[in-house]
């Protein structure tokens, strides 16, 4: 009865579900800052709590998305805020733009090629292979490219989320474990592989980490949009 009343009142539903989402995220963020557990990543924790909660009260994703639209509207200025570390480190970054571009072109080419060929070898479904090969860019660009190349955009959206979460959860620790401790290298690696989610985590480490991750995020999106339309069809011809 209470759930029906809330859902039937758009304003009340918006307030309730928005506050629940924010409170869950802030709780996880506070716990992670206190205990430093990887699995307490605020986004992962919020998803793992909200999904069972919405299933329990029988609210589908469309209804939840509509009632929390204000959070989506705030996402764009939040992403723009990631540009602050980039601005602070711009004088230093501009001296390395050629090297960074070359590294990212190589990395993007390798990732798309390996992901596509591996998916074709294991699954033998071109639409899935296309979707998985475009997992390391921001969601709007990844979905648009997938649709243009006749892939499955729903799989792309899921793969992008997983890539972002794994990069945010394990990326910095893995890089440190294998001896890559440079802020520049970590920033480029996480930003290119785990887009906004990974960048948001790196910003907490230092402004330099966040700046290079932001650069990688932006350049990777642009370069992927330029490379994938000719590389993926080429790979399709090679495997057929």
From TrEMBL:
Key words of the record: Membrane, Transmembrane, Transmembrane helix
GO cellular-component term (any): membrane
Membrane topology: Multi-pass membrane protein
Transmembrane spans: 6-25, 37-57, 100-123, 155-175, 210-232
InterPro entries, alphabetized: CidB/LrgB
Cellular location(s): Membrane
Principal location listed in the UniProt entry: membrane
Pfam families named among the record's database cross-references: LrgB
PANTHER family: PLASTIDAL GLYCOLATE_GLYCERATE TRANSLOCATOR 1, CHLOROPLASTIC (PTHR30249:SF0), PUTATIVE SEROTONIN TRANSPORTER (PTHR30249)
Entry protein name: LrgB-like family protein
Organism: Colwellia psychrerythraea (strain 34H / ATCC BAA-681) (Vibrio psychroerythus)
């Amino acid at each position: 009865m209470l759930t029906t009343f809330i859902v039937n009142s758009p304003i009340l539903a918006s307030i309730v579900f928005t506050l629940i989402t924010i409170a869950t995220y802030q709780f996880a963020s506070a716990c992670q800052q206190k205990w430093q557990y990887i699995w307490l990543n605020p986004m992962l924790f919020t998803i793992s709590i909200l999904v069972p909660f919405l299933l329990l009260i029988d609210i589908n994703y469309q209804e939840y998305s509509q009632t929390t639209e204000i959070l989506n509207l705030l996402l764009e200025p939040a992403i723009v805020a990631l540009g602050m570390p980039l601005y602070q480190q711009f004088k230093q970054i501009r001296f390395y733009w050629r090297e960074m571009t070359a590294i990212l072109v190589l990395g993007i080419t390798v990732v798309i090629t390996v992901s596509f060929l591996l998916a074709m070898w294991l699954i033998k479904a071109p639409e899935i292979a296309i979707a998985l090969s475009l997992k390391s860019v921001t969601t709007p660009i990844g979905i648009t490219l997938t649709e243009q190349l006749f892939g499955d955009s729903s799989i792309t959206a899921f793969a992008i989320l997983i890539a972002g979460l794994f990069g945010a959860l394990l990326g910095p620790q893995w890089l440190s474990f294998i001896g890559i401790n440079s802020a520049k290298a970590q920033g480029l690696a996480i930003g290119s592989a785990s887009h906004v989610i990974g960048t948001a985590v790196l910003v907490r480490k230092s402004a330099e980490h966040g700046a290079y991750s932001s650069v990688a995020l932006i350049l990777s999106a642009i370069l992927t949009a330029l490379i994938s339309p000719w590389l993926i069809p080429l790979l399709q011809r090679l495997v057929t």
